Amino acid sequence: MPMPTDPAPPRSTLATAGLLDDVDDPLAHREIALVDLLDRLLAGGVVLTGDLTLAIADVDLVHISLRALITSISPDRPSPWGNHRTEVP
Amino acid sequence: MSVDTTAPTGTVSYVYAVARPVDAAVLAGVRGVDGGQPHLVACQDLVAVVDTVPAAGFDESALRARLENLDWLAAVARAHHGVVDTVARHTAALPLRLATVYHDDDRVRRMLADQREAFSTALDRLTGRTEWGVKVYTDPTAPGSPPSSGGNTGGGTSADSGAGGGTGGAGKAYLRRRLAQRRSREDSWQRATELSRRIDQVLGDLAEDRRHHRPQDAALSGAPGENVFNAAYLVPADRSAEFAARARELACGLTGVRVELTGPWVPYSFVPQAFTPNGSGTEVA
């Protein structure tokens, strides 16, 4: 299907698709918070069993990544995995 | 898992999304998870948005290790989202879960063929829809909050004068203060929960579907107050502006809570999660 190739600059919203009237909405321009993004990228999205990521599918991925988040954002929280990012003196 | 047996060329195919056909030119200048430009792999009336990435960085063990690195995770999440969002601005697109990797483009094409019906159904359902996120936080600084630590500081002084004895009075005052703080916290939690229910009712009526995410940990979000409600709404594009306006209106009229609106998003929260006969699919809350 032929699609218009408007050279719109990359934006993090659907506003430029004409889906929104209020494209000047400051909320729509704000940088997306990582937690909001991960809510969607880790808990949403189609889960397919890829060729190389069998064991990472689903919950596993969420856990690995959240562990990264938690241990790096609260460096004083001890990590049972001995993550190098968590160094308790 | 050994890399050399799986990818003789040393590369693998990272898949961002499955979409309806779109001009490949929309991907011009877009940077993928490894810095390169993604391309399209077509199969009948579907395309997969794919990136050729080094196997060494994206096989299972590599991913496992790299996903533990927050900087890498953040960069990949943003790049993944950037690609999905770009494509979704031009055509209906189903985002795939982060880090879905195939041996090569032929395997991706086969996956499209195998799952064609499920993809088509899901794409049809989400065409012309957008997602809005709404979060409700307690507002610890709200003027309407019940007697809190501020009022009890005064209580501490009067306890001193009344009891005359240092430690006993101070101890009681401390306990009273803690109790008041706990009550205040419970009250604001309860208030925020009630308001969330109201908000969910009003906004849910404007939406086709909704999904409740787990409230975010304050340590992760860095946001003040406690997140008591974290929902996503699937809204038809032509009602999107109305939805956002209504959400803002609700947010302005409330005290004691803070309401945050994010979006519009590609409807991540509403794609069927697994294409299995008994798959959980999209839950209607």
From TrEMBL, chain A:
Residues in coiled coil: none
One Gene Ontology term of the molecular function aspect: structural molecule activity
UniProt keywords, alphabetically: Gas vesicle
TM annotation in the entry: none
GO CC annotation: gas vesicle; vesicle membrane
Compartments in which it is found: Gas vesicle
Domain of life (superkingdom): Bacteria
Pfam families to which the protein is assigned, alphabetical: Gas_vesicle
UniProt family annotation: Belongs to the gas vesicle GvpA family.
Protein name: Gas vesicle protein
From TrEMBL, chain B:
Compositional bias ranges of the Gly residues kind: 151-171
Chain positions covered by the region annotation Disordered: 136-171
GO biological process: gas vesicle organization
Superkingdom in the source lineage: Bacteria
Record bears the keyword 4Fe-4S: no
Alphabetical list of Pfam families matching this protein: GvpL_GvpF
Biased composition, class Low complexity, residue ranges: 138-150
Keywords: Gas vesicle
GO cellular component, one term: gas vesicle
Subcellular location(s) per record: Gas vesicle
UniProt record similarity statement: Belongs to the gas vesicle GvpF/GvpL family.
Protein name per Swiss-Prot or TrEMBL: Gas vesicle synthesis protein GvpL/GvpF
